[in-house]
Amino acid sequence: xxxxxxLLTDRSALNTIRACYQCAKCTSGCPVAALDPGYNPRxxxxxxxxxxxxxxxxxGKLWYCLACFTCQERCPEExxxxxxxxxxxxxxxxxxxxxxxxxxxARLVAADGRLYNIDEFHNEYREDEGLxxxxxxxxxxxxxxxxxxxxxxxxx
Length: 156
Ligand code: SF4
Ligand code: SF4
Known about the structure:
Blueprint (H helix, E strand, L loop, with lengths): L2 H8 L2 H7 L5 H5 L1 H5 L5 H9 L3 H6 L11 H5 L6 H14 L5 H13 L7 H9 L11 H9 L1 H6 L1
The protein binds iron/sulfur cluster (2 copies).
The site of one iron/sulfur cluster has 14 residues, from helix 3 and helix 5.
C-alpha cells in the first residue's frame, strides 16, 4: 500500500473525514484562508470524502497549508483536518503532484540540512551583523536526515 494511503488508513483519517459535517469552522479560523479566500480546507475534506481526492492532490493550493493546526483545534467533530491535509500532501508527493520548487527545496534540506551552503561569505556577513559563525560543514540536521532515508524517498 502507498505510504500516503497507509497514513490515511492507519491514522483513521478517512473515518475522521467522514465525521466532517462541513460546518466550516476550520476555514473560518484558517490564517491562510483569511489572506486568500480561494483557499478552503473544508472543501479539501469534502472532496476527499466523496472520492475526489485526486482533485485535491492536483490543486497547488494544498501546499498553502502552514500546518498550524488552528483548524484542528477549532473542529467540533474530531475530523482532524490538519492531519488529513498532511496525509494528502504525502499522497501528492507519492503520486508526483508536489510542486517542483518545493521538491527542490526539500532535496537541498534532505542533503545537508540547509537550503544553501554556508561559506566564508555568509560567515563574514554574519560577523558584520554580530552573529556567530556557522559551521561550513554539513550540520547535524543533515546527518540526522540522512539516517531517515528522506533523500532516497524524494528521489524515488
Ligand atoms: S473539518 Fe471540522 S471544522 Fe472543518 S468543516 Fe469539517 S467538521 Fe467543520
Ligand atoms: S493547518 Fe492549514 S488548513 Fe489548518 S488552519 Fe492551519 S493553515 Fe489552515
